[in-house]
Amino acid sequence: MAIRSYRSITPTFDSSVYIDESAVLVGDISLGEQSSIWPLVAARGDVNVIRIGKRTNVQDGSVLHVTRKSKQNPMGFPLIVGDDVTVGHKCMLHGCQLGNRILVGMGAIIMDGAVVQDDVFIGAGSLIAPNKVLESGYLYVGNPAVKKRLLNDAEMAFLKQSAINYVELSREYLGQ
After folding, report:
1. What percent of the chain has pLDDT over 90?
2. Residue-range domain boundaries for the chain
3. Which of UniProt's keywords are assigned here (predicted)?
4. Each residue of 117-160: pLDDT tens digit?
5. Domain 2-173 carries which CATH code?
6. Is the dihedral of CA 156, 158, 161, 162 positive or negative?
7. CB of 81 closer than 8 Å to CB of 53
8. Is the pTM of this model over 0.90?
9. What number of CA atoms fall less than 13 Å from residue 17's CA on the CB side?
């Protein structure tokens, strides 16, 4: 795997984390226990920080990045991802905040300053506009994404199960 320092800061994670050898992680990134980073993910914590919670999986071909601090935006936009989050294949997360138990559908894009509260399902190909807030308990779809409906009980349960599925798969890859 390509774990690279930037300005003497190196990504941090423990032995329970799976990172595919084709993934690239650079700079100020931390990964919570039992999280997984799959093939061809690019994560660059160079001009701000990336923080990923426990049991979160970032699937193949996704890109994670941040926004630098500036006079107009003194804090910039870090990338903060909570626990039990599933980020589908080929997603773009850029300077946004995701809570816990979220599923980001394949090919979705979440822009700077967007906030996704806990227990949200984002449909494949959706675009979450800058600074948009997605409320807990809903399905969002479209470009730009709109609130479609409340999640049902099965969908709420699936948010957690999806994360569990990837923890189990990553254990196999780690030979545990």
Report:
1. 98
2. 2-173
3. Transferase
4. 999 999 999 999 999 999 999 999 999 999 999 999 999 999 99
5. 2.160.10.10
6. negative
7. yes
8. yes
9. 21
